[in-house]
Amino acid sequence: MPARQTPFELYAIDSLLSEEEREIRGTVARFVSDRIRPQIADWFESGELPARELARELGSLGVLGMHLEGYGCAGTSATAYGLACLELEAGDSGIRSLVSVQGSLAMFAMHRFGSEEHKQQWLPRMAKGEAVGCFGLTEPDFGSNPAGMRTTARRDGADWVLDGTKMWITNGSIADVAVVWARTGEDAKSIKGFVVPTDSPGFTARDVKKKLSLRASVTSELVLEGVRLPNSAVLPEVSGLRGPLSCLNEARFGIVFGALGAARDSLQTAIDYAVSREQFDRPIAGFQLTQRKLAEMAVALGNGTLLALHLGRMKDAGTLRPEQVSIGKFNNVTGALEITRTARSILGGNGITLEYPVIRHMNNLESVFTYEGTHEIHTLALGQALTGVPAYR
Ligand code: TGC
Ligand code: FAD
Q1: With left for phi above 0 and alpha for psi between -120 and 50, is residue 384 left, alpha or beta?
Q2: Which atom of ligand 2 lies closest to the CA of 171?
Q3: Fewest C-beta atoms under 10 Å: which of 145, 208, 281, 381?
Q4: How far apart are the C-alpha atoms of 145 and 373, rounded to whole Å?
């Protein structure tokens, strides 16, 4: 064993991965080192991301919808997809978000619930990153409780007409296509998904400004004013909240792995800093208080990775249940946030600048804590699984 081990070497994580999984992880990690790391601090600081350009590059890399079968998608295992999310988020949560929303939300919705026409029209181009998708569920007044959504779709002759506002939509203003969820009647069971080309008359998107988190990600408000669509725009295979929530299971799974990437990058930065930074005439890595922080972070990261791999193996076996994904998001996002905060403390004053990635990861994880079901919603999902009593309302 070398004198210094990385946190993943300490846990022998590679021994749990197949050769193909190690290769995919390595390929994505190289992309992040070459393409993302050199520029991410500037993108974050300016709040400007070359998202369309990156989408094509991520398409060439093969990570867009990579765990889906057919239609130009790579058809890898779910675990391999999770590992790709981990490496992307080691670059920045915003890059992983771009990939999550494209593959796990917009593409997955069409792949699982769309017509053959939707799949043929959109999936091959989306897999290549030539077309970008977004997923509109959340509204200004309905985030955790999407059942209350106000966006409506009403029949007008053979067409549908959509009216409403969606909020906090990743990739919104750069998307070619939006999967929009709207109620077609009074009941939440009447909710349906619509495939909306973003050049449809009445569709507009406006970016959310002044964000202090996920600055290297496009976040938008979508406004639909009398957007007229043919009946073929409906996702035919699902009605009710089960539709969007099934898509969320996919994206939440990616986050279970992704958050670990932000944590690992922060921990490794703290270790490298601690061995070179001297105070009181010796490296701060030599102080027991620092070593305790590093040990606690490495164990939280390693345990979170074992959990993610366990969930990944269950997903590949087709046995993973939504409440088990909630365990992963509950544990790994909180653990990752804690790691980034502790890592930041090890960097002292340097920890508050974008010269190091840690505070960027820390701020990003505040969004990750909130989106895809807030930490509290996943807490209640676990409470329900344990007691049989739903406590949301
Ligand atoms: P409830 O009555 O429990 O369920 C309604 C129907 O849905 C089914 N269902 C699920 N199906 C699949 N997967 C799940 N996880 C499911 N959970 C529930 C359920 O069986 C039922 O089906 P059916 O056929 O009987 O009608 O629904 P509820 O209204 O009580 O809500 C439950 C709750 C609170 C858990 C749910 O609303 C929820 O998860 N809220 C959080 C919303 C959320 O996560 N929004 C995320 C928006 S997208 C996003 O954040 C993208 S960020 C992406 C990025 O940039 O990376
Ligand atoms: P609220 O639901 O108003 O919650 C506020 C607080 O109340 C939270 O702490 C919450 O946990 C708590 N709370 C709510 N209900 C309960 C309860 N029953 N019990 C206990 N506590 C409760 N949405 C999309 O549809 N598509 C996207 O692409 C997308 N991308 C996003 C990108 C970013 C950067 C962000 C920040 C959000 C994104 N979202 C997206 C929206 C995200 O899913 C919502 O922000 C999230 O679901 C929470 O909704 P809210 O912000 O309205 O908070």
Answers
A1: alpha
A2: 28
A3: 281
A4: 10
- Position in ligand 2 atom list of the atom nearest CA 214: 34
Beta strand 203-207 with 177-183: parallel, antiparallel or unpaired? unpaired
DSSP 3-state of 75 = coil
CA distance 364 to 124: 30
| Amino acid, res. 279 | Q
Cα 338 from Cα 289, distance rounded (Å): 16
Q: What domains are defined for the chain?
A: 7-128 (1.10.540.10), 133-233 (2.40.110.10), 242-387 (1.20.140.10)
Partner residues linked to 205 by β-bridges = 222
Tell me which residue has tokens 């919603």.
377
Per-residue pLDDT of the chain (393 residues; tens, 9 = 90+): 668 999 999 999 999 999 999 999 999 999 999 999 999 999 999 999 999 999 999 999 999 999 999 999 999 999 999 999 999 999 999 999 999 999 999 999 999 999 999 999 999 999 999 999 999 999 999 999 999 999 999 999 999 999 999 999 999 999 999 999 999 999 999 999 999 999 999 999 999 999 999 999 999 999 999 999 999 999 999 999 999 999 999 999 999 999 999 999 999 999 999 999 999 999 999 999 999 999 999 999 999 999 999 999 999 999 999 999 999 999 999 999 999 999 999 999 999 999 999 999 999 999 999 999 999 999 999 999 999 999 999
**Does pTM surpass 0.90?**
yes
Q: Catalytic pick from 116, 296, 372, 376?
A: 372
Bridge partners, residue 219, by sequence:
170
Any residues with Cβ below 6 Å from ligand 2, and which? 101, 135-138, 143-144, 168-170, 214, 219, 367, 370-371, 374, 376-377, 380, 392
The answer to whether 47 and 215 have CB atoms below 8 angstroms apart is: yes
